[in-house]
Design goal:
Phosphorylase Kinase, domain 1; Aminoglycoside_PTrfase; five-stranded antiparallel sheet; alpha+beta; about 325 residues; 9 helices
Amino acid sequence: MFNLSEPITVSDEAHRAIVERHGLPQSTTLQLMPATGIINTVYALGEDLILRVPRANPQYGAALLKEARVIPAARAAGVRTPALVALDDRLDLLPVPYAVYERVPGTALGLLVAEPGDTALAWREVGRDLALLHAGVDADDLPLPTEPGSPGPDPCGLVEQRASEGWFTAMEARWLTEWLQRLAPASLTFHAHHPMRVLHADTQPTNVMVDEQTLGYRALIDWGDTRWGDVAGDFVGPPLRAVPFMLAGHRDVAPLDDDDTVEARILWRQLRTTVALLPRGGAPNLSWGERPLARLLEIMRFFLDVPDHRWAALAPPSTGAAQ
């Protein structure tokens, strides 16, 4: 499933050295935080700071270094995200770069068993922050990776591959392919005539900080996947039932590029991601957004709840239509 290097442990000696290097009180404690992802180990550094240490992989270290460019730009645009206090890539205290951030009071939404409808206000605020990000950061000010000219691999080819692997039969493959083909034109034509926007690109619940008691929104965290792309890419990480709330929040601030087709582009990407992740099967140690069956059930639940007219028009084909 994954070939991950072992997480880096911060020894007592390294802890003391980090505290000294960054001018913190010698009494500053180090406490391992609950895991919300697979790349970084997160520690509480005293009461007010967070220490993030990536696994020993150059790609993960580069993602951390990217945050040094992204976070100031996002905060300048008005996005609620913790400030980066220090980033150290000297590799003399730890074998990997590490970063120190302000600590946001609250907890990651992904650690709570909360339905999207119960956290609608928080998701709407995420959408508002995404609108500020999409409109407020200029490409010339923030060089980042960019999505390819097409929105990614052909999901219909992935469907055929998954059928050949035994995940479903040719009957389900035909039905799913019809659905994807109906959604595809919006995504495939978008890239030909629209500018790319800066994306957070990992808006799954583990990266949304909320108040544990009120479920009020606090901040959007973890900018290691940030890139330029279609704004629809910022609505792939969360449960599909959260997306209408996010879109409403975004539209409170600004319309989305090609707003009339954004729901189709989002659904196309959500389906593609689910199909791509199927070989993971059971994923007990991964977050919600990394679990293919959780994603599949979420899409089913979304359309069982009778969404509004913009989404109802995108519903899966009927059984008869697939014959």
